[in-house]
TrEMBL record:
Function: Component of the Mediator complex, a coactivator involved in the regulated transcription of nearly all RNA polymerase II-dependent genes. Mediator functions as a bridge to convey information from gene-specific regulatory proteins to the basal RNA polymerase II transcription machinery. Mediator is recruited to promoters by direct interactions with regulatory proteins and serves as a scaffold for the assembly of a functional preinitiation complex with RNA polymerase II and the general transcription factors.
GO cellular component labels: mediator complex
Signal peptide per UniProt: none
UniProt keyword annotation of Transcription regulation present: yes
Molecular function via GO: transcription coactivator activity
Pfam families to which the protein is assigned, alphabetical: Med20
Family of this protein: Belongs to the Mediator complex subunit 20 family.
Name of the featured protein: Mediator of RNA polymerase II transcription subunit 20
Record text on subunit structure and interactions: Component of the Mediator complex.
Entry's Gene Ontology BP terms: regulation of transcription by RNA polymerase II
Subcellular location: Nucleus
Organism: Spizaetus tyrannus (black hawk-eagle)
Amino acid sequence: VPSVAQVPVAEGKSLQQTVEILTRKLELLGAEKQGTFCVDCETYHTAASTISSQGQTGKLMYVMHNSEYPLSCFALFENGPCLIADANFDILMVKLKGFFQNAKANKIESRGTRYQYCDFLVKVGTVTMGPSARGISVEVEYCPCVIANDCWNLLMEFMQSFMGNHTPGIPSVFGTKHDSIYSPADTMVQYMELFNKIRKQQQVPVAGIR
């Protein structure tokens, strides 16, 4: 069961320095590096021709990939279902351009280092849109458990050990899950919400990114 959250840039520090502070705290706890990760998201909007012919309002669809699931592609509708397809789904989207058009300037991704600490997997990533870094994402997963309610307190306690006051509240996706089994699609919904929040912030690109 993972929790995905945004961590603000520390006062007086650059975004890169804040990432380093977080990863240093994890290493001091005894977490070990386990390679890298990447989650990306492309936005598609309903093609203008479809809207005018059917009189519908435009909908957004997010096509996402996660390096944890290299053979899958996730398509999420706003407030709607999440479709899990195989990696060739991107090719299909090109063929559907009469219905969905890629908002090219909107591609956003989080990329960084994976850490393993006992039963926890932690991913600290820099969120970028185009050439500029926009924020920091932290995903913390408690690997042995698949029921969100059974391990939320444990997750929160662990996150407090290195995130301090920036420990997130319970993710909204958990609210609908309660005692049902958590799935990879739920993680992608959390990333979609995080990316949309960062897009809306539209902050000035942070200095000090290498």
